[in-house]
Amino acid sequence: MTVPSKYLTAAWIITFLLLALPVAHAASRGQAVYVSAYSHIYSGDRKKPFGLAVTLSIRNTDPHSSVTITQVNYHDSDGKLLTRYLATPLNIAPLAATRFIVNESDKAGGSGANFIVTWKADEPVSPVLIESIMISTRAQQGISFTSRGQVIWDR
After folding, report:
1. Which phi and psi (to 5°) does residue 106 adopt?
2. Which among 65, 78, 122, 135 has the fewest CB atoms less than 10 Å away?
3. Residue numbers of the domain that contains 55
4. What is the pTM for the complete model shown?
């Protein structure tokens, strides 16, 4: 059985059009995100604490829609709530960013500290990028590293 060429041409056109469509990214209307943070790490044989400044970076990756940060909570190694950073929700414009800082001198979080960040949007948007950046320098020694957030629930 042969397929008429008009059907093959139509199939090629449909295939081309489907391939030309933009790739859809996973969209969400909100999430709760766990982000590990380290107010210090241990170095040397004596496991001496090395204090770190922590920057929590929250970036709206959606080019068209705002998102609202509803909660930024900082917890210590035992899971105890140390700081609620927001008294009221915070709006972040498309492609904008904000940050929260834990000072290097603040050792309360410990090596197992974390943030829980929740955000929402009025419509499905590209998920928010949330990372922590830890950094410190002493004498001629410096250390820096990042940790990317892990979604713990999605709306």
Report:
1. -85, 100
2. 78
3. 27-154
4. 0.81
